[in-house]
Amino acid sequence: MRFLWILLPLLACNTLSFEFSGVPAQRVIVRKSVFDVRMVGDRAQAICINREWAPNLNYTAAWFVRAFEAASGCELRPNSMQGDQVVM
């Protein structure tokens, strides 16, 4: 039972939000970063799926912007992103 409590937080690290569950992902590669991008209407979610060092959001924000723009073909509005360095 103790093992389950240790494993549970790790399972939530790259889990889709409810709004994007069941939506097929579009794989986008930006530099060395690999993202799964899902879109519903005018909203999108990207998950960085490769293992790379990402100390904070400032380090990865530009790559998330490029991934969203590549997947949607649209220009991203300034200050329209929320999330952390793995899920945006």
Keywords:
alpha+beta; three-stranded antiparallel sheet
Quick recap:
With 88 residues, the chain is α+β, with helices and mostly antiparallel strands.
Report on the structure:
The protein has 88 residues and is α+β, with helices and mostly antiparallel strands. Helices cover 30% and strands 22% of the residues. The chain has helices spanning 2-11, 57-72, and strands at 26-30, 33-40, 43-48. A three-stranded antiparallel sheet has the order 1-2-3, covered by helices on one side.
Let me know the number of strands. 3
Distance between the termini: 32 Å
Structural class determined from secondary elements: alpha+beta
Strand order of the biggest β-sheet: 1-2-3
Share in β-strands: 15-25%
Name the poorly predicted regions.
none
Radius of gyration: 14 Å
Please give the largest β-sheet: 3 strands, antiparallel
Approximate helicity band: 25-40%
Domain count, please report it.
1
**Number of contiguous helices:** 2
Shape: globular
Give the overall average pLDDT.
Answer: 79
Q: Please write the string of helix (H) and strand (E) elements.
A: HEEEH
